[in-house]
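ligand=2-amino-3-ketobutyric acid
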Amino acid sequence: MKKILIIGAGGQIGSELTVYLRKLYGNTNVVATDVRECKALGETGPFAVLNALDAHSFAYTVNKYKIDTIFNLVALLSAVGEKDPQLAWNINIGALMNSLDVARQYQCAVFTPSSIGAFGPSSPKDHTPQDTLMQPTTIYGVCKVTGELLSNYYYLKYGVDTRSVRFPGIISNVTLPGGGTTDYAVEIFYAAVKHGRFTCPIPQDVFMDMIYMPDALNACVELMEADPARLVHRNGFNITAMSFSPEIIYKEIKKHLPDFKMDYKIDPVKEAIARSWPNSLDDTCARDEWGWKPSWQLPEMVTDMLKCIRRRKEEGKL
Ligand code: AKB
């Protein structure tokens, strides 16, 4: 049985991945850590406060729990990264370097999310290939490309079993994302249910790839369980489930909430980032090399998101 450590477990992905992995591998085999106390994660299994930039405490935790697999979910996202690029680099690359070094020392596998943000304006816009020009214009993207290269380097040089996917925007209803360019595609649901209206920061014609959280969780597990002999790539698999613009998701939500209204107040930083990213990715390599196949498309995702958020509202939990 795997012994898993999650760093950054309190965030959007970690808060759900911890629960998912505990169901698969057993509560005691999944150690959740975050820089802040997360009460809920400590209720179903081991939890420790851990600053992943502190290499000594990181190694101590890996050794203490006899960890063999690390999920590195520590990140400052794209939009917030532009406010303090040096901090974004220090956090994103610092947590990755410590993950890779501790993995080398204790023979662990490492999963680190990459992102559609690893691409830039010079990458092909539509069906962006797996292997293509990657010249991102955000510090987040620079960290993601660096992260993919460093992860490949640690695999080639030290044999560390590094794997990663390029996540699109992740849509979920448990923990809000923070500071991302794709956040609007989550915020729109809360605004629709709570207020019946939403002011969108992304222009109506900008397409970005998205994925619903259950598919994102599956991708993490399936890639980490994949037969290494089949992996031609390792770090930075393109994956996607759907591609839409604000106008398209608005119309889909309106099918359920006919009175829902949306207007636009464009955030220039987010607009520039979104326009520099692909409209849609080609995820053929992930499909061929480890069987990636999403289950959720736009209509089912919208139905489920609205159901979950409405239920939380009725229970007084919003
Ligand atoms: C962001 O918008 O920064 C993230 C991402 C696509 O990596 N959600």
